[in-house]
């Protein structure tokens, strides 16, 4: 009988978000999953550090934090803005010969799809907040605290600029499984555009729709779906041990 070496799940938050909510995620996931939230500069516990501008710098920081753990079984999960950073990090790590075994994304249409809304990151604060409210891009708890919202606006604006100016760069497709999640009431996504994540990989793709709008990560339905997907992945990997090693070594064509 072999011992499952486990899987490290690196998590990336939405625009302006912190790593904190992901710490609680571990309680609803299988025991063999180790949740490691990635905290970006200017966010959460690193709020006093300068914000990073541009997707390349953000991707480089995510790859740096993963570090040597890339040589162990790991997966990447990102929500909304975090999906883009996670995807681009997966591309870099794949090119370096240490791809994740699984990429999980949520709350963001496929990277080859056009932006789902008219850009507003450049607007003054009042118009910027109105834009966030219009697309459901602010948690209700933050809207209820005007002073706290004002404090977070620079990070949200900087991250949203990355999303709104993103252009998918041509390149090799990933070779790993990709799993996507979307809220049925999320105005920033639609089922067909979420399905477009299948275009960025030669691996298996699956899409799960859950109740709620853009911020559904705390919902029991999503957490159960995420746990089930990770359990299925572990079962598949354990049945085909050679495939696990092959995926870990694969480099996109």
Task: Provide a brief overview of the structure.
The chain has 253 residues and is α/β, with parallel strands linked by helices.
Protein model, in words:
By secondary structure, the protein is α/β, with parallel strands linked by helices. The protein has one domain (7-249): Alpha/Beta hydrolase fold, catalytic domain (Rossmann fold). The protein has helices at 20-23, 55-66, 81-95, 125-134, 140-143, 146-164, 191-195, 220-239, 241-249, and strands spanning 7-12, 33-37, 74-79, 102-106, 178-183, 205-210. The protein has a 6-stranded parallel beta sheet, with helices on both faces. The longest helix is centred in the last third of the chain and has 20 residues, at 220-239. Residues 240-253 have low confidence and may be disordered. InterPro entries: AB_hydrolase_fold, TEII, Thioesterase. Belongs to the thioesterase family. This is Thioesterase. Residues 8-223 form the Thioesterase domain.
